[in-house]
Structure formats: C-alpha cells, structure tokens
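4.2 Preliminary Data

To establish feasibility before requesting continued support, the project team ran the inverse folding procedure on a target of 335 residues. The structure was first converted into the token representation described in Section 3, and no sequence information of any kind was made available to the design step. The complete token record follows.
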C-alpha cells in the first residue's frame, strides 16, 4: 500500500471527501432540522471556495479522488458552479457529485454539468404532494420532479433518488418508488432513519428497518436479485427488480452498518474535519489554510482517531456507547 494514502488504524483507505458548502437550506425536513428552524452560520463563517479548493489540492495527491458537494442545500449558495470548476481542474479528482433536495436543480442543471459536475443524488422522501410538503415543511414535489427531468436532459449519470424511510409516514410508498426503478433508469436508495444530532428518542418511533423494502417485494410477488453496485453506490446494497430499467439500494446504518468499508471523510461548511458522521470529534482545518503540511497533518491526525464503528444500533437499543454522539444536526454536518 502506498505510504502517502490516507489510511486509518483499521486499514481503511480513504479516497472520498464530502464537502458541505453551507448549513443553510430552503426546506425544513423533519429528520434534519427542528420545527422551529435553526440559526444558520453567517457568510463569514463559511469556508470560501478558494479555501475549499486549497484543501482538496492538498488531499488529491494523498489519494482523494471522489468528492461530494453537500449542505444544507448546496444550491442556495451562490456561484456553486465556480467551485465545481475549481475542483474539477485539480489533477487526480475523478468524480464530483452533488446531494440536493432538487428544488433549484432545474434552473442550475445546465451550468453545473458544464462546470464539471458528474452526477446528482436527489432527496425525495414522498411522491405525494401533501405528504412531501409535510415532511419538508413546505416543499413542492413538482419542483423536485422538474429537477429530476432536467438531470436526465443534461446527462447526469447515474441519477439517484434518496428516500429516508419513516414508519407511518412514507413506508407505504415503497411499492411506488420501486415501480419508478422498474420503469425508469433511475436508482432509488432507501435510507434508514438515523439519530444524527437528535438529543431525544423521538427518532426511534420513526425508525423502520429496510428489510421492509424486500418484504414489500415478496408480498407483491415481485422478483428481484442482487445487482452489481452502481458507481458511487457507497454503502448501499443494490438490487434490481426483474426486467427493471433501474435499481434500488438499501443503506442500513442501524440494522447492518457498513463501517468496515468506510472510505469517507467530511469537511463541514465552517471548516472542520469529521472522520465519522456520528461522533462529536471535529478538527478545525480552516485555521491552517496556507500551510500545506499542517493541513495534511491534521487530516492524518483525524484519521488516526477515527473509531472502528459508529454504534448507532446501540442508540436504538438504549445500550451504553463508547463515545459522545454529535449534537450537530445533519444540515450542519453535510450528511
């Protein structure tokens, strides 16, 4: 193994960086923010595009080759295509993806594609307009579907839809999403509800294990088989319905965690390294802008302290945990 690669104490090689560009969002999804909303960081606390680019320039020679732009909602930050142009010009960067709620995607898809964006993940937790508005506290599902269509038109591949499954909320829409994967070359990714930044136990009432998706297939008599993972599928276990144009995947951080193959690091919008999504540990890298050696050293230090697993399942069962979970909300971390 090349000595310069970013490797943690458990031998996991890290080649993937998730970059949050803002904690701001135009929606207020129930699993991401409290109902009263949040106090967002002022612009001066957000890393500049030039600072983000400098960090990636340090990491690319160390094996980072895949990037994902996240938020909050990244498309609420002005000039995002400029950052993507900067990042796509860095030698060694092979793939730049975007996680978005899709509301603004239709108006920016052309520009993002031209700047070097490779693919998109669109959050879509319900196809029912009233239910979507309830989950997002005011979102318009039609705009997301327009963004999906625009993604087809400009040629983003693959296109993935992320569905956080919630008991009694959208778990009765599994069949409808599966039909989408059958009829269109789209990749549905069902995600288990996670206790990120939730200091209570209310999330437990919404948790449903993703065995529910396969059970739905069986109940409906729909044949499916394990499918080769789609590029960028990360922790998803991928399946395909018989005769389908697309696929569906299961991301199970609670019932079947994927920590053993974790290859990702996170950079928060305010300039902190998070080696693990769940735990509170963070390292301020923004203070080292201009010092290449210090940036590299801090990333290696963060990796040296990366735990073997996140222990979210213990949060579900009420068992004692070995560390302190983050109090940051998902929108503040970047997912």
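Position-by-position output of the design step:
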């Amino acid at each position: 193994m090349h000595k310069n690669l970013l490797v943690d104490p458990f031998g996991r090689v890290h080649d993937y960086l998730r970059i949050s560009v803002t904690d701001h969002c135009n929606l207020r999804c129930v699993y991401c923010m409290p109902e009263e909303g949040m106090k967002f960081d002022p612009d001066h606390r957000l890393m500049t595009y030039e600072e983000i680019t400098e960090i990636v320039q340090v990491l690319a020679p160390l094996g980072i080759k895949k990037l994902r732009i996240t938020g909050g909602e990244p498309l609420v930050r002005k000039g995002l295509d400029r950052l993507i142009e900067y990042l796509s010009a860095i030698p060694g960067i092979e793939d730049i993806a975007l996680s978005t709620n899709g509301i603004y995607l239709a108006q920016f898809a052309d520009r993002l594609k031209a700047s070097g964006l490779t693919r998109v993940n669109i959050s879509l937790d319900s196809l029912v307009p009233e239910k979507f508005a309830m989950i997002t506290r005011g979102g318009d599902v039609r705009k997301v579907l327009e963004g999906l269509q625009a993604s087809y038109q400009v040629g983003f591949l693959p296109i993935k839809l992320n569905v956080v499954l919630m008991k009694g909320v959208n778990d009765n829409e599994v069949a409808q999403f599966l039909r989408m994967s059958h009829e269109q070359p789209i990749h549905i990714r069902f995600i288990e509800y996670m206790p990120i930044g939730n200091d209570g136990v209310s999330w437990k009432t919404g948790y449903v294990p993703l065995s529910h998706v396969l059970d739905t297939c069986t109940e409906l008599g729909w044949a499916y088989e394990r499918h080769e993972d789609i590029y960028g599928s990360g922790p998803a276990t991928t399946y395909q319905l018989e005769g389908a144009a697309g696929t569906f995947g299961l991301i199970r951080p609670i019932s079947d965690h994927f920590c053993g193959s974790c290859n990702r690091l996170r950079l928060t919008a305010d300039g902190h390294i998070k080696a693990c999504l769940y735990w509170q540990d963070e390292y301020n890298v923004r203070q080292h802008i201009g010092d290449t050696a210090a940036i590299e050293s801090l990333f290696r230090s963060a990796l040296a302290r990366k735990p073997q697993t996140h222990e979210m399942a213990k949060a579900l069962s009420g068992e004692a945990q070995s560390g302190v979970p983050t109090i940051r909300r998902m929108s503040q971390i970047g997912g």
